[in-house]
Amino acid sequence: MLPHRVFARLYQWIRVAAVLLGTAELLTSPVSTAATPPIKTRSAAISQLGLASIPGPLPTYYSHGTQSRAHQLQTLLGGELSYYSILFSQRLPPISLAVLTTEDWRDVDPEDPYGMPSVSDQAPFVFVMPNDWSKVTWMTLPARDRVPQGLLKRALANGRTWHQVQFEGCDGIGTHEIGHVIVKALGIDPQTRWFNELLASYVGYAYLREKFPLQALSSEIFWRQGLSAPHHLSRLEDFESHYDELMQHDPANYGWYQVAFDQRVIDVYREQGVGFLRTVRLAFPQGAPRLTTPEIVDRLDGLSAGWKAWAASITSSTH
Ligand SMILES: [Zn+2]
Q1: Any idea which architecture 6-29+43-315 has in CATH?
Q2: What's CA 26's distance to the chain center, in Å?
Q3: Whether pTM exceeds 0.90
Q4: How many whole angstroms from 16 Cα to the centroid of ligand 1?
């Protein structure tokens, strides 16, 4: 079941992608039609609050009392940036992280509900993450009794707690968002919205599998929860052609698409590992002629087997 506030979150994900892809000016917010609020950048708000910070490749500001969580998220998300920067010998754009309590969130990101991860739409770019997912109201945390027993047992290995698995699954939204930054920085043109979303998840998931394999299991649990969402559309072409409609009127169907993409991520990673991203970088460079969805699927199928079969299988999954 998808949360009632999921639309706003999904819109935010897209806004982030659009900003990072340089198309933000094409979007206007369908969420807020109120008078324009006073302009205060996130960095200005952070400065006014006098938040402490941790230096590093991903400078991290944090609310009072959240230092250990800030360290954890800096390690996770800064580690993702460093991992791909080194792997691809690629300089990545400067970005900082803010880990916030509910009180500070209202000052730094007043437009969005607490805990909705997003990158600011103007420089200096600040990525906000919640200190405490249990205080988030726009999203339902994964439910333990809905996780297949085998998967749950593996996720709880080595004394890990369900609370930890829940938080890590939600933190996977962060690795997806950083994934958008990396896809763009690597010069990959996903050509379509569906492939862009799939690739952002691939970047985040491949990093977790390489560096934090148990946390990758937490992402798998998080993704699995959305697969039962009602979805009258399931073709890749429909995601493109009905995109605005899905965003504005059918968040459940939109969310189903995201987790359907994520299932493909898991399968391709099993065969190709992180090396798949090298292949994609060569096959989908920026500035190349436009491709249709069938042409993209054809090209991918030539790179690794199973894409055509996958595209066909999700088409027939409508319910
Ligand atoms: Zn995304």
Answers
A1: Orthogonal Bundle (1.10)
A2: 21
A3: no
A4: 7
